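Course assignment 3, question 2. Fill in each field.
Student: A.L.
Task: Predict the tertiary structure for the chain below.
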Amino acid sequence: MQYREISRPLVVLVLVFLLVCGGIASRTQSAKNETTQGAAASASPSPTPKNREEVPQDSDEVVKVETNLTNIFFTAADKNKRFISSLKAEDIRVLEDGQPQEIFTFQQNIELPLSIAILIDTSISEQRTLPDEKAAAQAFLENVMRATKDEAAVVSFTGDTTLEQGFTGNMDRLRRAIDRVEFVPPSGYIGGGVVVNGTPPISGTNQSIAGSTAVWDAVWATSEELIGTSAEHTRRAIILLTDGDDTSSRMKMHEAIERALKADALIYAIGIGDRYTFNVNEGSLRKIAEQTGGRAYFPKHERDLNDAFAQIQKDLREQYLVAYSPTNKARDGSYRKIEIQVVNPDLKQQNLKLNYRAGYFAKTTGPEPTTTRKRSGDQ
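Answer field:
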């Protein structure tokens, strides 16, 4: 085989040509890569929103989340107390401190998760009715609780407030907690609502506090220390079983209402007690329920008690949610009065009863509490 001799100048020329072509190809590929990466970045979805705890407290996003929307839940019923489930956004008008507000969201929330605190008065006035109250409370929770979605807590109170069971979705734990609730007679109690003066026992705590009733303290403590730790994005409610005869609270009723409003909790009051010896304070129970957007019930028989719980269950499931951005943007902690009016002429003639909280407290410029938790399991 013969080999041709290639001249050195020709070899150098070929090498230069190859180097130039390689450089052009490299720059072209680099430009393509940059173009591809830029397109991919613009086409990719935005990052997952941060949890509230991860967002810096001085960022604009926190202000937007905390101030731009006010959520109001309400129910609608006709004169026969039948629920109306056909309302539309254009059928109502929302006013805050008398000023019309633009509605951003209007929907019916049947599947909203629930966080329910059952408050059971165990003072002397409840001695006769306590077994029926416990049975009705258990039946209520068994009917309303949905596994892995809802949660409940059990609290008992006389002059003191006792947490029997923290928030859990475990129905067995809730049953056991309600079973534990019992009437503890105060020192000197001889029955029939009669307490005679005597020396309290030396050992243990002074049982005389069991003879008093601190309703507003119990509501305040539950709203502050329990409801505030319930799962985020749930419908919060307090079921208050008592005769409403407060004898020893350090907190006033308006302070209990204010704390419940700040916790965004409805209060459903069931006025029940020993009617043979004690009176039910219907006025106070109606006020604390209506001011927070709940209702008050005054059952006279066991059947009435079960009906009250059934009505509360329906109330919690068949609510409307209306959300608006307040025209008053001040973060001053002031109380804002809310009014929802029916503007549809046909519906106005039906004299519908709308049930909702009377107002709310605006956010303040201080740091927000971080005690709320996500629904992650039973406690």
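Instructor remarks: DSSP finds nine helices and 16 strands in the chain. The mean pLDDT is 78.
Grade: pending
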